[in-house]
Structure formats: structure tokens, C-alpha cells
Amino acid sequence: MTRDETPEATLRRARERLTEAGVWDVEGDLSALVDRFLHRAEPVGAHAEFEAAVAERCARIPLGHITGSVVFDGLGFVVGSGVFVPRSQSTALVEWAAGDEVLPPGGRVLDLCSGVGALGIALARRRPDATVTCVERDETAVQYLRRNVARHAEATRKVTVEVRDLLVPDCLADEAARVDLVIANPPYVPPDVGLLPEWSVHHPRAAVYSGLDGLDLIRAILRHATTVLRPEGRLALEHDEEQPVAVQKLLAAEGFSEVTTLPDSDGDPRITVARITPQENP
Ligand SMILES: C[S@@+](CC[C@H](N)C(=O)[O-])C[C@H]1O[C@@H](n2cnc3c(N)ncnc32)[C@H](O)[C@@H]1O
What's the pTM? Predict the structure, then answer.
């Protein structure tokens, strides 16, 4: 920007740059960048920061990594470089999980691969009677997770954080048969799937990809779920829209019933839910 440029010209130029860079929601991103960097009480340096932020977004750095926050299910979450930015499409999973017919009163929930905690914390706000444990391996994600738990202290009085690697087979052994509901939005993308740079370049690989078919973490989560769930306990998993059949087969093979794939908040078939079938007495 030049000193003489009008605010209108600054916005027009930013809009053109974002459009040229292929950003898909130019008006939404522009409005978020204006709110974050231009509309502030201390104007010194604001325009330079705004220009730098637009340049970052044109380099396809995720909006949340630039603004430092994202709204999920009506709650603000702190995010930043090195962590997965929660997607509003996952809200449908939280809505399903919060239903009385899914989660019994005072129920116990595990949010596996919890990242910055969006699903677990949003569920805790919707169901203050529930106890929620967020499980995450990555140290950076855990730092953001703890900050988000602290920021939403009123909703998260019964939310705890556990640092565990879910690829370790017995890492949830202490939860055996204690859990009413497992929720997870794990990494699930196969390595040969082309993603936008926001995800392929600027998100941590371990938050996006998971083995040759993308299903390594999902397999591990299903095995954990068979151990931790009480009889009749439920599970809800987010996955790719190409994966419903594969995920349904894995669930059936692990002894789950009532396997159903539901639409996410954009209407895509990306959430599969199931109930653990109680073991028959020998
Ligand atoms: C797709 S991100 C989703 C985060 C969060 N559930 C959400 O929806 O915003 C997947 C998360 O799984 C975590 N993760 C990957 N491998 C893991 C493992 N072996 N054990 C525990 N967490 C893992 C990543 O660090 C990342 O935070």
C-alpha cells in the first residue's frame, strides 16, 4: 500500500490479490483480515500488518494461522501454525454426539486426536453433565488444547487433557469399559490425494495423513473403542467422503452394529456412527 492510497483502494487491491491467488472465500477472508488487522484501536502499523497478512493468505497460509483464532460451534478457539484448524463442517458430529439418545446423562466421552480441542470442548458446552477427556499426541497441539480448555473454563470444568500416542496399542488400557461415547476427527487422507496447499503444505502432516490408505489412525481408534466403550457405547468418526464404505467395513469387522454414515454440516457423507455390540456370554 502507498501512503496516499484510500481505504477503498487498499481493499480493492487486497480483493484482487486474494482472487488471483485462488483463495476460495475471498470476501469472508478479507472481512476476517480487515477485522483482525485494520479495525483496531491502535492504528500505528495496522496497514503494514494488514498487507503482510494478505500476502500470507495469498501464499495460501490458512486463515486461522494468520488471525490466530477460529470460531467453531459458536466458541472461539485459539489456533496457530503447527496445528490443525478446526473445520465448521465437523459441527454435525458434535450435534449428533450431544443428543440425549446418544450420550446418557453424566456420560463419559473420549475425544481422540483432539487437536486444539474443538470437538470435545464444544460437546462439553452442549452437554455440561458429561465428562470429556481430550487425547492428543502432538506437543504443539496440546499447548493450544490446554489454552482452549482454560479459555472456556465455564464449559470445560469437566474436560481433561491426556497426552497419548494412539498408535500405541494399550495406551488407553486405563479407560477399559469406562466410556459411553468415543468421538474423533483423526487424520485420514491417503498420501496420493491432492489437497489444497492450506492442508498439503501448511498443516502438520501427522494431522492430515495416516498411512497408505489414510485409515491407520481410524483402525487404531476402532481397536481402542472396542476396549474403552461400555456395552452399548457409541462412536462417531469423521473421515473423507470417499471412505464411508471402507470405514463401515472396518466397524463391522470390529463388532460394531447400527453403523450409519451421516452428512457433515456441508451435507457430505463424512461422519460414520456406530454402537458397540455387547459381547454374548459364553
Ligand atoms: C485432523 S486433525 C483434527 C483435530 C481435531 N479433532 C479437530 O477436528 O479440529 C488430527 C489430530 O490428530 C492428531 N494425531 C495424529 N496422530 C496421532 C496419534 N498417533 N495419537 C494421537 N493424536 C494424533 C494430530 O496431531 C492432530 O491434532
Answer: 0.95
